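Before relying on records like the one below, remember that each one covers exactly one chain. Contacts with other chains, cofactors or solvent are not represented anywhere in the record.
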Amino acid sequence: MLRYRIMKGRNLKEDIMIKNSHCEDEKITCHPELVSGSNDTETLKYGGQSDVQGDIESCYKTLSRICKFAFCSLTNSTLSQRERVKPAFTLAEVLITLGIIGVVAAMTLPSLVSNYRKKALQTALLKTYSELQQVNQQLISEGNNLMDTELTSHKHRAKLVMGKFNGKYAIADDNHSTISSTLKEKIYHNKGLYDHHRDRFASPTCDNAGVWIDNQGRLWLFNDADRQICVDINGTKGPNAYGYDFFVFYPDINGKIVPRYTDVENEHGVQNGHIGGDYTYYAVTNQHPTEKGKTYWKDYLKY
């Protein structure tokens, strides 16, 4: 009988292992036959009961610890794996993003470069115009008005102005044909001077007192008619074209330096912009030559 009871107890332990597979806080669902007060338990209240039940309870506690350890280890392992997994872009996503950036750059970069060049030329023009006005006022204060009839020599006017800019001769010749050809071939290296449309070469308006270069690299030319002063605001750098980086000024009777195209009807040689089309007045004031409400540098000039 005792052997039977022991075998029965072992069967109960195996039954517990099968039916109870998880635990929480060291609590486990017990086998119904072993719950205190059960009728089945009452049948074990004779010889060998304490030994068998003690084995079962020991097994019960051992299983509880094993279950808890296994469950917690599994949970911690799962969390650890999730923590180690970090989000990242796939190669396809990176390539698609780079492709989109490339397309956008190809569409916007030419416009950005063009606007930057225009802004640089506009800034250089306004700076040059301001400096020329200051030099003119200095000459007047010294008794040298550029409109004075006694200053009939264009060489004299050139030397007065260039003396204030620390200028020196780049072409020391008075012949207009020599100045025009030398400027084109030796200074611009056949990359200027262009007309306003930049589709053909144009002769310089100022071609009577050589070509000068100042301490900032700007090119200066002087003319006898209307006492005109021409300047390439960025020297030999492109585009070397009228209305872009080549502009024309002249002194007026009020003792000021005026951009050409200020008074088209009375200005020497200006007839609908046929001489190069420098449009200096519109460039200085940033006004569109023909359309009101638009600007010269942004809307009119194509670069």
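DSSP finds eight helices and six strands in the chain.
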